[in-house]
Amino acid sequence: MAEHFDAIVVGAGMAGNAATYTLAKAGLNVLQIERGEYPGSKNVQGAILYANAVEALIPDFREDAPLERHVIEQRMWILDDRSYVGTHFRSENFNEEKPNRYTIIRAQFDKWLNKQAKDAGAMVICETTVLELLKDETGKVIGVRCDRDNGEVYADVVVLCDGVNALVGQRSGIRQEVAPEHAALAVKEMHFLPREVINERFNIADNEGVVIEILGTVTSGMLGTGFLYTNGESIALGIGCIVSDFVEKKINPAHLLEKLKAHPSIAPLIRGSEVKEYAAHLIPEGGFKGVPELSGDGWVICGDAAHFVNAAHREGSNLALTSGRIAAENIVALKKAGKPMSAENLKLYNQALEESFVLKDLKKYKDLPDTLWRNKQFVTTYPELLAQAAERFLRVDGVDKLTKEKEIARSFRKARGVLGLVGDAVKVARAWR
Amino acid sequence: MTMKIEEKLYQNRYRVFEGEPHVCIDPTKADVEALKAMVNICPAGCYVETEDGKVEVVPDGCMECGTCRIVCQDTGALQWGYPRGGYGVLFKFG
Q1: With an 8 Å Cβ cutoff, are B69 and A147 in contact?
Q2: CA-based nearest distance A77→chain B, Å
Q3: pLDDT at residue A393, as a whole number
Q4: Where is the 4Fe-4S ferredoxin-type domain (chain B) (predicted)?
Q5: What is the pTM for the complete model shown?
Q6: Same domain (yes/no): A117, A200
């Protein structure tokens, strides 16, 4: 394996596949190393795919990529133990010729995207775990060491797309460990149902999909969210909370998932389904403050490994695809100009990300993760207050409306205090700005 | 809880490399709080506390999320690496 490549990409998730495809398509000699049995077998996501980020790579991807349903309706549900208060947005505009968002099954999509990279000329090796980076005497990264005999491979640049745990970079001393308050632990089940049953339950046609994002008492006072996504013949149902909150509350995520499944608003949607998989995964949720050093002498980091998740908007795969593509484009530009993959030159990648939505969005919300984590009332007190207010307002019981409104206002003041309410509004406004 | 963790894991596909667990506890630090937390929160239920207050791990059902790794990072109680290439959990859907 002592061959020399233009670039080595570690990992075959969204970022790794985008980078490998872009490098190979530009004619570079690229090796991609994946530890799973096949690309996708270690990857876990809800999952929503944002078309725009794939189009930037493969404009006609819709023709043969494995897509489940295009999303025509987005629901945001705030649950207490017995109810939900929700907003739904459904639009015929999402039934467009080239839909904007799709539900996907990662194992299938990743295998497909990786095949595009292979067809573009990349060499892909699976069932191989990269252990660490190889460096020369100056500290420049010159390759990787894998868990195979003679497993040392060399390249001008290593593109680290090894996911949220980012072990390779940590072992090699180029980055810090992920903090427990900057990662969410999410669990998910795949509930299989006939396509017609899903169509009926969600009032959708064959390829139309519904997404439900869930907040509230289902997270048992921890900062987190649940989700329900409709695939073609399955429903992905999951829930995740910040790791340090799990540690403090001593609650098992599997228990939270069972609680979510039993909720009166969720149970009828998955009734009679057959569960075919249970997955757990970490999500980088620290936002901009969790982003490590993005490049150095002979290396760049993309995707989850770079902590590129916009927690406020539940976006991640598009940041991964985009960062992988941008890293590769800048490597191609350096290669074509005959310039070395030095720390200084690879700063081009950082600059390009600064100008893209990836870092612009993470910067916009840089204070949001910490604000929510320190102020649990946003996921505990307020959902309950909202549900109680809605019920009080809608229940017809002989009490006059003015009295009802006063009771509702009193319940908010009692729970948070007037200063508390004002303070909470200011905190959210600041973190959102 | 209506569905036990073992029942959930039964749906999954694994390829276990016998005799080479990818998660190991340092026996001299098997009673640290961080490990005890994992007994409660590991989504695959890989951690158990024995009668003498020490924690043991059997990572056969591990989904490689890495939660224990980051929870125990400052204790030195855990050696955590990905399984040998091709082994471990193999997601059908992910």
Answers
A1: no
A2: 23
A3: 92
A4: 53-83
A5: 0.96
A6: no
Inter-chain CB proximity B94 and A105 less than 8 Å: yes
Per the CB < 8 Å rule, is A165 touching B90? Answer: no
Answer for the pair A144, A2: CB distance below 8 angstroms, yes or no: no
Asked if A189 is an interface residue toward chain B (Cβ–Cβ < 8 A), one would say yes
- CATH number of the domain encompassing residue A125: 3.50.50.60
In a domain, A88, yes or no: no
For residue B82, give the nearest of A35, A180, A258 by CB distance: A35
User: Is residue A81 situated within a structural domain?
Assistant: no
**Closest CA of chain A from B74, distance in Å:** 10
Establish whether the linkage from the previous residue to A267 is cis, with ω within 30° of 0: no
First-to-last C-alpha distance (Å) of chain B: 24
Nearest to A277 among B2, B15, B92 (CB): B92
CATH number of B5-89: 3.30.70.20
User: Per-domain residue ranges for chain B?
Assistant: 5-89
A408 in any annotated domain: yes
Whole-number Å distance between alpha carbons of A215 and A418: 24
Distance CA(A336)–CA(A8), nearest Å, equals 17
A334-351 pLDDT tens trace: 999 999 999 999 999 999
Count the residues in chain A.
433
The structural domain count of chain A equals: 3
Q: What percent of chain B has pLDDT over 90?
A: 93
- Tell whether ipTM is more than 0.95: yes
Interface of A with B in 31-60 (CB under 8 A): 35-37, 40-45, 47
